[in-house]
Every structure is written in structure tokens, then in C-alpha cells.
Amino acid sequence: MSETGKLIEELVGIMASLRSENGCPWDKEQTRESIKPYLIEEVYEVIKAIDEKNVDEIKEELGDLLFQVIFHARIAEENGEFTIDDVMDGIRKKITERHPHVFGDTKVKDSAEVLVNWENQKIKENPKRKSILDGVPYNMPALLRAHRLQDKASRVGFDWPETSGVMEKVKEELSEIEESLEKSDLESARAELGDLLFILSNLGRFLGCNSEDVLNQTNNKFIRRFHYIEKNLKESGKKLEDVGLAEMDRFWEEAKDKV
């Protein structure tokens, strides 16, 4: 057995011990539903480490995420549903079958054709899927989901040929929001705002980035700059509620060059 295989086997054994009769009281009590939040949390921890380009953190958080996979597999094994071996065998088969250009005789001209073949294979594997959009989870963060939906649609040619087409649509949606506001039609304005966010997500795809990621970067930037305002007001013996927008904006402008 390879060193990797031994380590995985040891980790699976550790989980079995934790869930055993003489194991950890907390681990034994957990269910698939109760540990679901930890699975989500670990995914975001990995993403955070990647964003920060912290290799040591990436390594550690990937380990935490792997442990969550093994935790879920152990619960399934106890329920008589499947084992970690079934999980690994399933992904092994799926990846090899979806890469016939690597593990078979299929020829492809570029990555775009690879993606089209990938989607066709997914529909072939699951007859219940009637659309290439069916595989996008409904409970993903909204901007990320918008990105994935438009990315999948683009794989079969439903897309603008150039960024200029997206920009025209952005202007159109913004104009429709303005029209709704002029009519004091808030319901319509909200719907148009959704359309604008959707197309802005598509613009991010054309710019080679994910809107979820860039919005988070802006969120973090806002936090840094607002902290700068709070810090400087505190050092001046003032409180946020005691100063006006003009003074806060002065520190905000300073923050642009400092944080």
C-alpha cells in the first residue's frame, strides 16, 4: 500500500474510533444534519486560505475538509448506505469517464470542447437531468450561482461573443431601474436590480473573475477603511454617532491611500 493509502486508512480508523462505543461523546452524537454546518464552514476556510495565498493554511484547511468527508462517509457506513471506499471508487470512475480525451480515444481541439463533452456526459450519466443547468445547486450563494448558470449556458453557445454585448445589457438594466424609480414602482425596481446583479455576474465571467470573489474583496476593503475611520475618531476622542458624514468621509479618503 502506498503512503497515501496508509494515511487515508489511518484517518478512516481514527474516525471509526471516535464513533465507537468507547469513543468521543460529542462525535458519537453527531448526525449528517448536525455536522452539515461544519462542512460548509470548512469549505469557506479553504477559500479564505486560498484568497490569502497562505500555503500552510491551505494545507491545514484541506485536511479539515477531508476529515468532514470521512465523517459523512462513516455515518453513511453505520447506516448501511455506503462506505468511504464507495465514495473514492465513484469519483475515480466519474473522472475517468468524463475525460475520454485523456483515458480513452476521444480527440478534442480545446478546453471549450472538453466542457461541452463534460456536460453531455453528465446528462448521459443521469437520465433525470433534462438540462445542463440542473447540476447547479439552488442553495449556492446567489452571485456564485448566477456565475455557474451563465457559464454552463455559454458552453452550448448561449452567450455574447464579446464583452461589449454584456456592457450594453448592463446599461439597459440600469436604465430600467431608473425608469422604475421615476415611476415610484419599487417592486419593479427590485426585480430590475436582480436582473442587473445577474448580468454583472456575467460581466465578471467575461473579465475572467468570479463576482462572488471580487465582491468579497470589496467587502474586506470596506471593512478595512471603515475600521480606519473608527480608529481615527476614537483617537480624536469622538464617536461615530457624534460626527457628520463630512468628517467620516475625510477619514475615508485618507484610508484609500493607507489601507
Q: How would you describe what is shown here?
A:
The chain is mainly alpha-helical and 259 residues long. The chain has four domains: 92 residues, MazG-like (Helix Hairpins, Orthogonal Bundle), CATH 1.10.287; 38 residues, no CATH class; 68 residues, Orthogonal Bundle (Helix Hairpins), CATH 1.10.287.1080; 45 residues, no CATH class. 72% of the residues lie in helices and 0% in strands. The protein contains twelve helices and no strands. Helix 9 packs antiparallel against helix 10.
Q: What's the structural domain tally? A: 4
Q: Under the CATH scheme, which architecture of the largest domain would be assigned?
A: Orthogonal Bundle
Query: Beta-strand level of the residues, as a percent range?
Result: under 5%
How does the major sheet shape up?
A: none
CATH class of the largest domain: Mainly Alpha
The total count of strands amounts to 0
Taking the alpha carbons of the first and last residues, their distance comes to 51 Å
Radius of gyration: 25 Å
Flag low-confidence runs: none
Topology (elements, then pairings):
Blueprint lengths: L2 H16 L6 H5 L6 H16 L3 H24 L5 H14 L2 H4 L7 H15 L16 H13 L8 H20 L3 H21 L4 H25 L9 H14 L1
Helix pairs in contact: 1-4, 3-4, 8-10, 9-10, 11-12
List keywords for this structure.
Helix Hairpins; 72% helix; 4 domains; 259 residues; mainly alpha; 12 helices
Provide a brief overview of the structure.
This protein is mostly helical. 72% of the residues lie in helices and 0% in strands.
